[in-house]
Every structure is written in C-alpha cells, then in structure tokens.
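Objective 1b of the project was to move from sequence-level analysis to a structural picture of ligand recognition. The entry below was assembled by the postdoctoral researcher (A.K.) and checked by the PI before modelling. It contains the amino acid sequence of the target and the SMILES of the bound compound, flavin-adenine dinucleotide.
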Amino acid sequence: MIDWKNTAEVAIIGGGIMGVCTAYYLAKSGVSDVVILEKELLAQASTGLSVGGIRQQFSHPANIRLVQKSVQLFEHFKEEFGVDINFRQVGYLFLAQKEETWRNFLSDVETQRQYGVPVEVLSPKEIKHRWPYLNVEDLKGGTLGPEDGYADPYLVAMGFANCARKLGVRIEEKTEVTGIKIKNGRVQGVETSKGAISSSIVVNVAGPWGSEVAGMAGINIPVKPYRRQVFMTKSFDVIPKPVPMIIDQDVTFYFRGEDPGLLMGMSDQNEPSSFNLHVDREFLEEVIEAAIHRASILEKAEILRGWGGLYSITPDGNPFIGAIPGFDGFFCAIGFSGHGFQQGPAVGIILSELILDGRTDFDLKPFTFRRQRDIKHKGEKRVV
Ligand SMILES: Cc1cc2nc3c(=O)[nH]c(=O)nc-3n(C[C@H](O)[C@H](O)[C@H](O)COP(=O)(O)OP(=O)(O)OC[C@H]3O[C@@H](n4cnc5c(N)ncnc54)[C@H](O)[C@@H]3O)c2cc1C
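Corresponding predicted holo structure:
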C-alpha cells in the first residue's frame, strides 16, 4: 500500500530548478505542507542537462535583475546549503560579427551598466591580445562580463531539494500529473498517476512540458520545446585556462572550459520544435566547423561525448511568471528560453512571495501572461 497523502497546501508540478527553489522558499517562509510532483527524477530534465551558465549580460533589464538576485545566492551557496556548487566566475565573452549585432551589444552595455553590471567593451585587437587563439578577422568587437561564469546545475538543484526536504517538503518522484481540477475559476487540486491531491494552490514549473500542463487547466501558454545539443571534449590543455564562456552570437556557437576538457554547443536555427533528445552526428560536423572557424586550435580537440536537452522557448524570449488571470490559485513559471537555471533561485523567491503575500517587489510586468497584448513590449534579444 503506497503511503499517499491526498491534500497539500501547495502542489508543485515539476522537480527541476524552478520546482525545488519554489518549494524551498515556501517552506523557509513557514509553509509546512508543500509537495513536489515529478514525473521522472529530480533535476534530470532541462536543469540537469544544462551547461550551468550564469551571466548578467542580458538585453532586458528584468533578466539582468533576476540573475543579479540569483548571483547573491550562488556566491554564498555553501554557507546556506552546505554544498560546493563549483561556482566559477570565469567570465562570458560575447562576440559580434554583424554590424547590427554590434550595435545591439553596445546598446545592451548601456542598459547593463545602468543596472551596475560590470562589462568591458573590447575591440578585435584587444580580444586577440587576451585570447590569442581566437580568430578576430570577421569580428566587429566583443563584450566581457568578468563576474559571469557557471556552476553545477545538478548540485544547485539537489542542494535546494535536500534543504527543502529537511524543512518538511514532500518530494514525490515518478509521479506524473495528469489533470488539474478547476471549479468556478478556482484551482481545486491535481490528478496524478498515484492518486488525486486536493490543493488550493498549484504551481506549474514543468519546464518544456509547461504548455501541456497549462493545457490541463484549459490555458493556452505559448511555450515550445526545442532541442539543444552539447558536446564535451577529451582533456584539452592546449589553450591557457580558465577558458571563459565564449559566444559567437551571430552563429550561436559557444565553448568554455569544463575540466579537463571543453564544453561546446550551438543552436540549430532550422530545427522545428520537438521533444527529440538524440545527438545528431551531422549537426556535430556543423558545430566543429563553427569551432574551427573561431579558433583553429580547436581542430586538435577530440569529442568525448554529447547530449541533447530541451530549451522552453517563448515568442519574445522572456518567461511567463506569476498568477494566471481568471484561474485563482494557479501559478506558472515557464518558458525560460535557455536561461532558467541561473534565474531559478530568484524565481523561487518571487513565486513564494506571490503565493504567500499576493505581491512581490520585483516588477513582473515583462513576464506577465498579459504582456502578449502589449505591442510595444520588447523581449530578450540575448537568447543563445
Ligand atoms: C543544453 C542546454 C543548455 C542550457 N544552458 C543553460 C545555461 O547555461 N544557463 C541557464 O541559466 N540555463 C540554461 N539552460 C536552460 C535551463 O536548463 C532551463 O531554463 C531550466 O533548467 C528550467 O528549469 P525548470 O525547472 O523550469 O525545468 P526542468 O528542469 O525541465 O524541470 C521540469 C520538470 O517538470 C517535470 N514534469 C513535466 N511535466 C510533468 C507532469 N505532467 N507531472 C510531473 N512532472 C512533470 C519534468 O519531468 C521535469 O523534471 C540550458 C538548457 C539546455 C537544454
């Protein structure tokens, strides 16, 4: 007989970074009866498959502020959670080939500096001087965020999950939510593969499945899954370390150090939305070509393995965060368009405030469901 509790104060759908952070901050604020419902295992979908990048170089102020709020936590993670998350501030170097991209970078730098982001503007000559292995011939310039870097996304998520558990959060793995009960515009609870749970608050943090889960409540939210492939090389000590995250924005190719080798990836702009996770050898050839163009020394790197993960993309590159009008008690945080790992802690705090107090000091206008009607609304340009 399964020990199944059929009520909860808050039912969270999804055990990725968004789910565990939200659960932790709710429990920390005194909510004693929170359950995370995860159809597979914790942090093994987008969160565990991500490359852990943390950067303040965004075009939209709201994304900058979300990451700044998270960075404060990453810097002190060990003190609060007792886990070393391998937070390395090795920097993010964005490179622009096209004139238009370069103009956008310079305008983004103005925005970033207004919000206190340390960012350096570099000419091709300066880039060559600091990273002699890079081909700068076709570049207009680059921007470097020296405080940007990466951390281990699985360790971060499990740090949150373990502390949430200690505060009384129930974590039900291998438990799929199959339905959401709504009556008279109010959430009543969820149906799952193990039984029903009645709850007046339901949180959809189902990542790439966020749109499907919203659909269970009869809500249409435009979030689509797209495959992203990542490749890891064998040990590569030919270029000096640390190797920052280097992003060739116009072709979306990126690489960074991941001891003892390198991580690299690229977006396939022609690929349709799907849940496909397979690694594609033909696409790897395109990645290698882009790599060798940017740094011919990478010809010497040998690929060790690759994997596919899912981005959850929205039409404007910004997520949907908050309550859904007309569905009392139903909250969403989905559509992070490739930057949700680093925003998870901040989103967890914000969602817990919204659920407990009905408000947050964080200006969520750019992330609301209703923004879709505002034709003047601008989204995020730095989606890789
Ligand atoms: C290759 C790659 C690289 C990335 N690099 C970065 C990066 O450098 N920096 C960064 O910040 N972000 C990055 N991201 C994006 C980041 O991984 C995501 O934005 C983030 O992990 C989203 O977290 P989440 O909790 O919303 O989703 P997920 O981690 O996908 O978690 C959602 C969970 O919901 C569960 N679920 C779905 N439906 C149901 C259901 N019906 N019932 C129960 N459970 C359900 C799923 O099983 C899943 O575990 C990358 C992503 C990929 C794929």
